[in-house]
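Subject: for your reference before the review

Hello V.,

The reviewers asked for a structural picture of the protein, and I figured it would be easier to keep everything in one thread rather than splitting it across files. Below is the amino acid sequence we used in the manuscript, unchanged from the supplementary table.
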Amino acid sequence: MKRPPYTYRLIIILLILTVVPIGATHIGSIYLGSKNGILLGFCVGIPCVTFACGSFLWMAGEMRMKSEFCNYKKRGFRCHGKVY
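And here is what came back from the structure prediction:
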């Protein structure tokens, strides 16, 4: 399966960063009260931000590796006896 385009990936990450913590805060405030709902929102938001940062770093690494590979390809890079 091919990966979605970069813009779609950014939209997905944006939704993860906004919808999930806000929804958890809202539902937590309804069932647990105001203070505990906000605490739940923070506790849910921390893994969301961690995931988003990891995704951005992963995408940046893919782009850097792709550009380095293209530069090696232009220079005739050899790897395991093959010329790329």
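For the response letter, the relevant points are probably these. Strands lie at 78-79, 82-83. The first strand starts at residue 78 and ends at 79.

Happy to draft the paragraph if you're swamped.

O.
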